[in-house]
Automatic annotation (TrEMBL):
<keyword id="KW-0067">ATP-binding</keyword>
<keyword id="KW-0472">Membrane</keyword>
<feature type="signal peptide">
    <location>
        <begin position="1"/>
        <end position="30"/>
    </location>
</feature>
<keyword id="KW-0325">Glycoprotein</keyword>
<dbReference type="InterPro" id="IPR013210">
    <property type="entry name" value="LRR_N_plant-typ"/>
</dbReference>
<dbReference type="InterPro" id="IPR052941">
    <property type="entry name" value="StomDev_PlantInt_Reg"/>
</dbReference>
<keyword id="KW-0677">Repeat</keyword>
<dbReference type="GO" id="GO:0005524">
    <property type="term" value="F:ATP binding"/>
</dbReference>
<dbReference type="Pfam" id="PF00560">
    <property type="entry name" value="LRR_1"/>
</dbReference>
<keyword id="KW-0732">Signal</keyword>
<keyword id="KW-1133">Transmembrane helix</keyword>
<dbReference type="Pfam" id="PF08263">
    <property type="entry name" value="LRRNT_2"/>
</dbReference>
<dbReference type="InterPro" id="IPR032675">
    <property type="entry name" value="LRR_dom_sf"/>
</dbReference>
<keyword id="KW-0547">Nucleotide-binding</keyword>
<protein>
    <recommendedName>
        <fullName>Leucine-rich repeat-containing N-terminal plant-type domain-containing protein</fullName>
    </recommendedName>
</protein>
<dbReference type="InterPro" id="IPR001611">
    <property type="entry name" value="Leu-rich_rpt"/>
</dbReference>
<keyword id="KW-0433">Leucine-rich repeat</keyword>
Amino acid sequence: MTEVTRAGSRRPSRLFVLTLGALLVMSCGAGSVSRATLGGEDGADLRSLLDFKRAITNDPRGALSAWNVSAHFCLWNGVRCSGRTRRVVALDLAGHGLSGQIAASLGNLSSLAALNLSTNGFSGPIPPHLGRLTELRSLDLSYNTLQGSIPGALTNCSILRTLNLSRNFLVGRIPAEIGRLSNLTSLSLRFNNLTGIIQPELCNATSLKELRLTYNNLGGSIPEGIGKLTELRTLSLTVNRISGGIPESLFNLSLLQLLSLTGNRLHGQLPPAIGHAFPNLQFLDLATNMFEGHVPASLGNLSSIQEMDLEKKIGLEGKSEFHLACFLTSFVWTWS
Ligand SMILES: *[C@@H]1O[C@H](CO)[C@@H](O)[C@H](O)[C@H]1NC(C)=O
Ligand SMILES: *[C@@H]1O[C@H](CO)[C@@H](O)[C@H](O)[C@H]1NC(C)=O
Ligand SMILES: *[C@@H]1O[C@H](CO)[C@@H](O)[C@H](O)[C@H]1NC(C)=O
Ligand SMILES: *[C@@H]1O[C@H](CO)[C@@H](O)[C@H](O)[C@H]1NC(C)=O
Ligand SMILES: *[C@@H]1O[C@H](CO)[C@@H](O)[C@H](O)[C@H]1NC(C)=O
Ligand SMILES: *[C@@H]1O[C@H](CO)[C@@H](O)[C@H](O)[C@H]1NC(C)=O
Ligand SMILES: *[C@@H]1O[C@H](CO)[C@@H](O)[C@H](O)[C@H]1NC(C)=O
Ligand SMILES: *[C@@H]1O[C@H](CO)[C@@H](O)[C@H](O)[C@H]1NC(C)=O
Ligand SMILES: *[C@@H]1O[C@H](CO)[C@@H](O)[C@H](O)[C@H]1NC(C)=O
Ligand SMILES: *[C@@H]1O[C@H](CO)[C@@H](O)[C@H](O)[C@H]1NC(C)=O
């Protein structure tokens, strides 16, 4: 009885397979193997790419001039597909002088792993629909003229590794949800006009190796949780309005190669042990803050240092003067 039922239920599916086969043969017969049609999943990719092209108002070098249905979109300039599924996995149109808005329909490229629209003239907002790209690992929209705030929905791209939105006109807060991006290794928001504070939640993104918030309008203090970001190699908070002291936990970041806090409102004394905390430090910029006291002698122990920029008004401790003098010849020393 069960057997009969199973056999019976199998028949329609076989019929379906046959029909599909016939359709495939028909479409091959029509000579369109190298084209995508508007149906199916690659059809969705085709539609969103055409929609993206439609939103581009200026293409001075003709980067998209061959984006038409006479060739499969996998062959279009800047598009990379998976060989197996023929879905779009990467879109790289950096540096083509394109302008216009970024079409929300890019969020329909559901297999997209890398999107690079850097160094163009894209304006308008970052579409929150990009948050639908759950396969996205790298998003680079840097060097454009994008406006508005950073959509919190971007943090739905849960396996994101690289997020670069630097050099735009973005305003508002850094979404706290970015801290949920456990795979994020690089976050660059340099040269925007972001306000608010560095939220403690951001320190949950413990894979971060690079955190660049240079040239914004961020206030508040450096969160104590910064010490959780033990993978950090680069920490730049240069030119913001950050106040308070340097939290003790910062000295846990022993892999740091670049630490730049220049141009903020930080105060307090530099901890005596600062030079022992960062054996890999190459660049240390602390100038134009409100630090007091002396340059700790231990700075003479920063054996990898190449460049150091400290505050003019804090004096050198006698001992460090001696140590620093020993290697002044091999690195750049700036009093600013
Ligand atoms: C993108 O997907 C949405 C929702 O599925 C749909 O309404 C819209 O028409 C699609 N846009 C394009 C250009 O395919
Ligand atoms: C369509 O793209 C092909 C290259 O794939 C190009 O030679 C052709 O000029 C394009 N046609 C139109 C109408 O833009
Ligand atoms: C995006 O493209 C630019 C220009 O080719 C390149 O410099 C940059 O590294 C790319 N971004 C990413 C995240 O690979
Ligand atoms: C992001 O995820 C939240 C919660 O799962 C959902 O409500 C929201 O619609 C998503 N946004 C986008 C743009 O996918
Ligand atoms: C954006 O940042 C990523 C990660 O640091 C970097 O690989 C990429 O080159 C940057 N893009 C540009 C245009 O510099
Ligand atoms: C993301 O990180 C988790 C651990 O936090 C890891 O298991 C997973 O493989 C990573 N995913 C990708 C796509 O790298
Ligand atoms: C940045 O934002 C602040 C506060 O919203 C505003 O006063 C300032 O003019 C903005 N600066 C730029 C360069 O847009
Ligand atoms: C993220 O950070 C906040 C504040 O630091 C903390 O309360 C919360 O438990 C953290 N969440 C996770 C998932 O680690
Ligand atoms: C810093 O490291 C010390 C031990 O090296 C540990 O006790 C402390 O909890 C760490 N602090 C933070 C904020 O991670
Ligand atoms: C670190 O500096 C101290 C003096 O501040 C010195 O006695 C010590 O030898 C130095 N250690 C290294 C590894 O350079």
